[in-house]
Specification:
- This protein has 265 residues and is of the alpha/beta class.
- It has two domains: 135 residues, 3-Layer(aba) Sandwich (Oxidized Rhodanese, domain 1), CATH 3.40.250; 109 residues, Oxidized Rhodanese, domain 1, CATH 3.40.250.
- The strands form two sheets. The protein has a five-stranded parallel beta sheet with strand order 1-5-4-2-3. The chain has a five-stranded parallel beta sheet with strand order 6-10-9-7-8.
- Helix 2 links the parallel strand 2 and strand 3.
- It is globular, with a radius of gyration of 18 Å.
- The mean pLDDT is 94.
- Keywords: Repeat, Transferase.
- GO terms for molecular function: thiosulfate-cyanide sulfurtransferase activity.
- This is Sulfurtransferase.
Length: 265
Amino acid sequence: MDDSFVVSPDWLAAHLEDAAVRVVDVRDAWEYDGIGHVPGAVNVPFDSYRDETDVDRGTLPGADAFADLLSDAGISPEDTVVAYDDTHGVFAARFVLTALEYGHDDVRLLDGDFSAWNRDHETTSDVPDVQSTGYEADPLERDDSPLVGLEAVENALERDAVFVDTREQDEFEEAHLPGAVRFDWREVVDDETRRLKPADELEALLAEHAITPDREIVLYCNTARRISHTYVVLRALGYETVAFYEGSLTEWLANDGEVVTGSSE
């Protein structure tokens, strides 16, 4: 597993004193304050970096708005950022994807979540003092971004791309893109440890669904939250040709895109 995308709790514990490593807790403020958090972590709640108005590239918050969040959190562009939540990493993965899209070079997902961290490492209720950094985002050029839109998805349907639907079975049966395979994002998580399954087990599991590194892969769900987790996992496993359909099924249906009902499994 590539630790430039995903880091273990032990890795984070060993780097907490490193001034260049900044930890971001994306849970709600009441959880961050009332339950406790990783020492030194700042709180950037999930709702604060998700735009529901569809003004700026789907549900992304916009480069300036995101830069303001990171600036207020005391984060600089050169920092190594590690994000976590308490929901197996799905909300934190959305933060990772957003930061990457807006040009932050080094942002990683904590393998597991707060509950996994809390099993072996200390927590605190102390809120760190931070100074605003004047962060400036540097969004990826369209050709460098994994995000794809409606036209690119339509074109990919004409090729041998693997469309991966990361939703639950009932959602998939109600409507999915033609030829899509269903791969519930939670399949990569070990329910007992709350961490990712071993890399070799993940690779075998993905291969069973024809999700292999040699294929062009297009991820979608409903509103691009769940695919964020799958995207980070695939990149950590070395997958390179992974497209991220930001509009997902919500945009597809709004534009009368063709869908299939029932199970293909």
